[in-house]
Amino acid sequence: MRPNILLFGDSITQESFRSGGWGASLADAYSRKADVVLRGYGGYNTRWALFLLHHLFPLGLTKPPVATTIFFGANDAALAGGTSERQHVPVEEYKENLRKIVRHLKECSPTMLIVLITPPPIDEEGRMEYARETYGEKAMTLPERTNETTGVYAKGCVELARELGVRSINLWSKMQETDGWQKKYLRDGLHLTAEGNAVVFEEVVKVFKEAWLDASEMPYDFPHHSEIDGKNPEKAFQQKCL
Amino acid sequence: MRPNILLFGDSITQESFRSGGWGASLADAYSRKADVVLRGYGGYNTRWALFLLHHLFPLGLTKPPVATTIFFGANDAALAGGTSERQHVPVEEYKENLRKIVRHLKECSPTMLIVLITPPPIDEEGRMEYARETYGEKAMTLPERTNETTGVYAKGCVELARELGVRSINLWSKMQETDGWQKKYLRDGLHLTAEGNAVVFEEVVKVFKEAWLDASEMPYDFPHHSEIDGKNPEKAFQQKCL
Question: Cross-referenced Pfam families, in alphabetical order (chains A, B) (predicted)?
């Protein structure tokens, strides 16, 4: 009965239901109106995401999501030659993979609201600190991700969205508008703090509202309790449930 | 593909995806393994919940939830004659309504894990403070809920669960085992703080584990990224996706 909003992405999507997470905040904001479906795959890049595409979004679904966020790139942008090379995908292929994902979703449902989200910026120093804390002396001494390279992927993502006529959120740019973004928004140089999650939540809600998927304008699935007459509850439920 | 875990209840369920909420924590714990579906209806009692039953759980569903939490009673236990009288349901009817809900779910799926959760205890003083802060001089001077009365509903809920052979969580008793439960677990004498939410989360996970619905024992829907060979990703996806 309720529409689905699907969140497709990597670890920043997968962990979005932790305390203060942007996915949980969306589920709360759309509570009684839409279901938020979590499809986050930690460590995945767009190349691997393609293997899941037809399984998560089979053609002919009777109820495809009304909206999907596509939030990859943080792993694609791992440096070739770095310690996370296994996850690296060249930027041109990243764009091509995103194009395939969008094209498939459009085929599933031409009216689906599709929102491409760029990776967040990288705090290289924070990333190094995290590596030292986690791996001690064995820690990498060269960065596995740089902010500059991730910025190239963010630019590619936004360009592609414009080309395909779908909406996008340039998280890489947006976060860097705020002084001290490195520690304010990122907890290990890459993943989001509660404040970083709040930025994603606000940006997603803003785009959803622009596209008329505004929780405050959507109907409740069933009557609000204040509309139910204690002595004659049937009346409130008549239209939807009797 | 993933099983569904459905949370059916009143406001304490509806707001369970706020920061630190027990529903969001469940979604996070079962991420990549099961979907947590939010069906919380603020202000609802079991009498009104019955109107939704066949809509939320139609017979013949191809994929009924593998587990459902039923978490009502906080509104049923509003005092007859108090300011929330509209929501009051006598305890015998409350038990009868819960019985109808359980019976219907069993009909939907004989293997569904059903967990009845009692209402939390009431901090009467906290409830008064909240009323004064919210309504000022117009605030009620008599309690609309008492801890003793809510305890009668909690007892009825647990007895019914035993009679029907389904699992239950006596939240009313559990919370009162901790000194200072009034402010520690309840933010307005009735609804849960983050610490109160953590108690519900822990208790639900405990019951789920006892019933073999243990996230750590459940398979990932798709390969963990560490299992994917960067040079030959097809291999990891072969079993599930090719």
Answer: Lipase_GDSL
CATH, residue A29: 3.40.50.1110
- Assembly ipTM: 0.93
Rounded Cα–Cα distance for residues B50 and B46 (Å): 6
Q: Do A19 and B226 touch (CB under 8 A)?
A: no
Tally of domains within chain B: 1
The tens digit of pLDDT for each residue in B50-103 reads 999 999 999 988 899 999 999 999 999 999 988 899 999 999 999 999 999 999
pLDDT (0 to 100) of residue B242? 66
Distance in Å, alpha carbon of A184 to nearest chain B alpha carbon: 18
Quick one: closest CA in B to A47, which residue? B233
Nearest-CA distance from B162 to chain A in Å?
A: 30
> How many other CB atoms are found less than 10 A from the CB of residue A241?
16
- Answer whether A25's CB lies under 8 Å from A57's CB: no
* Span A113-133, pLDDT tens digits: 999 999 999 999 999 999 888
Assigned token pair, A7: 């969140």
- Within 8 A of A88 by CB-CB distance, chain B residues are 230
Whole-number Å distance between alpha carbons of A48 and B110: 38
Position A143 confidence tier, pLDDT thresholds 50, 70, 90: confident
Top residue of A26, A62, A93, A228 to mutate, by most chain B CBs within 10 Å, is A228
Domain residues for the domain of B228 are 4-241
Distance between CA A188 and CA A126 in Å, rounded? 5
Residues of B in Cβ contact (< 8 Å) with A194: 19
Nearest to A20 among B14, B19, B242 (CB): B19
> Residue B194 class from Cβ within 10 Å (0-12 exposed, 13-18 middle, 19+ buried)?
middle
The whole-angstrom separation of Cα A32 and Cα A35 is 8
